[in-house]
Amino acid sequence: MADMGERLAFLRGFLSRPREVASLVPSSRFLERRIGRVIDAGQAQTVVELGPGTGGTTRAVLAEMPADAQLLAVDTNPEFVRRLQAIRDPRLIVAEGSAEDLAAILRAHDLPRPDVIFSGIPFSTMPEETAHQILAEVWRVLAPGGRFMAYQFRDAVLRRGRAIMGEPLVECEWVNLPPMHFYSWDKSGRSGSRRTTGRATAP
Ligand SMILES: C[S@@+](CC[C@H](N)C(=O)[O-])C[C@H]1O[C@@H](n2cnc3c(N)ncnc32)[C@H](O)[C@@H]1O
């Protein structure tokens, strides 16, 4: 849950880059917990978070993840990246960069294909071309049997994602105002537990 310093940093981030942050406040504790459940973080091995912001969602997912799992958090905002780097958890790797370059970022950190990618980046405020590039990159690097989940207030990712990934599973958190939608796409492939013994390298 964000303290006052974190809320102010988030607001500064919004004021300096409104289209990239697209929200005045970080996710509530309630939403943070729901994210962990929707991605089944307790079964994940290599997780990527796109748009972690000031890190509330990152900490919540780390709390659910197995002790030997890894989480790569990627954000474009250097101030957010500095705050994320202050999270003391050996499973966390923080990268400043764009989701468009996910394959290169995974390679730079010698990480395998993720079995979970989750995203809070606002697909509704970015150019069509950028959204397409990010979704295509996500789907390309995701491990067979893996899950991509985007939590969004608007449905732009649904319309843009269908062409690349097919129909998602849609869940809604009505307690939140405005209601938050969770769009999940499961890539076909290995079934059962997401945990792997082998290591498929990132493309
Ligand atoms: C709505 S905030 C979500 C923050 C946090 N996960 C939460 O729920 O409170 C969106 C975040 O996406 C980041 N972002 C926007 N475009 C991005 C991109 N192309 N690649 C990576 N991060 C991006 C912004 O800097 C911001 O931190």
Automatic annotation (TrEMBL):
Keyword tRNA processing applies: no
Entry keywords, A to Z: Methyltransferase, Transferase
Any single Pfam family the record assigns to this protein: Methyltransf_25
Species in which this protein is naturally found: Spiribacter insolitus
SUPFAM superfamilies: S-adenosyl-L-methionine-dependent methyltransferases
GO molecular function: methyltransferase activity
Keyword Transferase: yes
InterPro entries linked: Methyltransf_25 (IPR041698), SAM-dependent_MTases_sf (IPR029063)
Record's protein name: Methyltransferase domain-containing protein
One biological process term in Gene Ontology: methylation
Annotated ranges, domain Methyltransferase: 47-146
